[in-house]
Amino acid sequence: MAHPAPPLVVARADLAALLFIRHFETALLELFAQGRVAGTTHTCLGQEYIPVALAPLLAGDHVFSNHRGHGHYLARYDDPAGLLAEIMGRAGGVCGGVGGSQHLWRPDYLSTGVQGQSVPVAAGVALHLQQSGRGQLAAAFVGDGTFGEGAVYEGLNLAALWRLPLVLFVENNGIAQSTPTDRQLAGTIAGRAAAFGIAYAGVDTDDVGEIRSAVGPLLAAVRDGGGPLIVEFRTRRLGPHSKGDDSRTPAELAALRSADWYARTRALDPVTFDEIDERQRARMAAVLADVANREPAGQWAGTQWAAA
Amino acid sequence: MATETLTIGKALNTGLRRAMERDDKVILMGEDIGKLGGVFRITDGLQKDFGEERVIDTPLAEAGIVGTAIGLALRGYRPVCEIQFDGFVYPAYDQIVCQVAKFRYRSRGNVTLPMVIRIPFGGGIGAVEHHSESPEAYFAHTAGLKVVSCSSPEDAHFMIQQAIASDDPVIFFEPKRRYWEKGPVDTSLGLDAAAPLHSSRVVRPGTDATIVAYGPMVKTSLDAATAAAEDGRSLEVIDLRSLSPLDMGPVYDSVRRTGRLVVVHEAPGNIGLGAEISARVTEECFYSLEAPVLRVTGYNTPYPASRLEEEYLPDLDRVLDAVDRSFGW
């Protein structure tokens, strides 16, 4: 997928957030490679700018994340140790170690690894937010592959029918696990939005400030009762779907890496970039050292009922 | 006392009405449940009295209905979803099994989903297979769900209210072929007068053999007990009421007295609730048993065309035959 690749001007705090997510995900893949983490994981390498751009726009809203959700969480909450502990099954995890990488819960945040499953749930939350009339919205992150799932369309139909404050942020990275988007998706995501009468915007830039300027007014319209919205980010997945399962050619991967925000941003001001980069790398190392030394997460008798 | 004679369908309606009067967070959702009052009229008149925001007609979208209900439950509501027919719950299965059942576990008990999914189930109305199925074992097998079934107007009236009051999700199976059966209900009583939701109950005492059933098969079993009495056999009939968690105490007590057990359900026998009950009774009452636990169930086939359903459905004769076989040991 062709992307314009201008140098990026990024505020220091945003750059720090971008780089921290990059180092978190990189460290996670290393931990798996070393056999220090069990199970599986899906990293958002290359896509970090989307949650970083959106986080301040969604501060009081209800966010639904998916299997590729570490960036969504890290950009929203200053809690990297909580996430890493959750993934590593150590004390202090977001969900005490019972949720893991893909099933996080906080009072206004929820993730699930099953594709499309969150869309109707987000519609239900949006129905409540609409009735409570405080201008909040429900936002769900989905991928291009998610549009193969029927639950997405049931949720979109309800949202459009009832004009719910529901936003789908589509991270279209051009590939669903190992299947290129043009081999798994008929038509377009814009066409789907049009079919439901849902507002749509496509985003090709990875400039955090530009994204905020473009998306902010669209979210304001949703908050004002304008009905649901789909924002499609055409982005890049630099890493494998999970671990070591990348089906793309070295040439394809090289092209993606050359378009990545990291090198372009560094080129603009290497000294400042390197300083922030090193600080975030050290921060990640400190988080890892902290979490890796913690006790295993405690047992929880999850089969008990809430009430007799 | 304000005892009325109600059908099971009407008793569910009065129970839903009570729950909605008691708590304005109770919201009903489903296909054609508003103006029409549902295919079986269980929600008849409720939209008129409580408004379109509390009795919501939805698109044909079972995953959407259950998913939306999850979202509402997360925000403090107590949604009650109507699945129009048993066979329509499968599109919502992902939401129920992967989300509804697991929230409490994943959140370490911080989040419970107080929602009810009502499903008319079972055959006997001359309908097609996806209007006649008994899918309860799929749900009872799933940790994190509570599963119940009512068999009388009194239980229908109170159990639906108890299910709505539960902080955990409840799959509520309604015996659709019995919707029109009548019985006394004291609608003036509060929930504290009702038996606990997850309790089984002896509905006919007896001494010679025990019959365990739930939902539509309770009436069949009671009819069989009446017929057996004419032959001098005293059958004790237990209505399980709760399919998960199971309340096995009354079953064990009964089997220890009678020494014989027949389990009856419409669902296919293969890997069904009858197998679980049989296993538990064998584990707990082995030395009391005079005969193997026997099962009377639907056959291990898809639900048949309506002209064949009388062959498929367990009936009085098949229950009595099993009792005879039990005594033949």
Short synopsis of the structure:
By secondary structure, chain A is α/β, with parallel strands linked by helices. Chain A is 46% helix and 12% strand. Chain A is globular, with a radius of gyration of 19 Å.
What does this protein structure show overall?
The complex is a heterodimer of chains A (308) and B (329). Chain A has helices at 12-33, 49-54, 70-76, 80-88, 118-132, 150-161, 181-184, 189-196, 208-226, 250-258, 261-268, 270-292; strands at 62-65, 105-106, 109-111, 138-143, 166-172, 175-176, 179-180, 199-203, 229-234. Chain A has 308 residues and is an alpha/beta fold. Chain A has one domain (12-289): Rossmann fold (3-Layer(aba) Sandwich). In chain A, the strands form 2 sheets. A 7-stranded mixed β-sheet of chain A has the order 2-3-1-4-5-9-8, with helices on both faces. Chain A has a two-stranded antiparallel sheet with strand order 6-7. The longest helix of chain A has 23 residues, at 270-292. Chain A starts with 11 loop residues before the first helix and ends in a 16-residue tail after the last helix. Chain B is an alpha/beta fold and 329 residues long. Chain B has helices at 8-22, 46-50, 62-74, 93-100, 103-106, 136-140, 153-165, 217-230, 249-258, 273-285, 309-312, 316-327; strands at 3-7, 26-30, 55-57, 78-82, 116-121, 146-149, 170-175, 182-186, 201-204, 209-213, 235-239, 242-244, 261-268, 294-298. In chain B, strand 10, helix 8 (217-230) and strand 11 form a beta-alpha-beta unit. In chain B, helix 1 (8-22) packs parallel to helix 7 (153-165) and helix 3 runs parallel beside helix 4 (93-100). The chains are: A alpha/beta (308), B alpha/beta (329). Chain A binds chain B through residues 95-96, 98-99, 103, 105, 110, 112, 114, 117, 119-129, 131, 138, 150-151, 154-155, 157-158, 161, 300, 302-308, and chain B through 53, 58-59, 61, 63-77, 79, 91, 94-95, 98-99, 102-112, 143, 146, 166-168, 196, 198, 245.
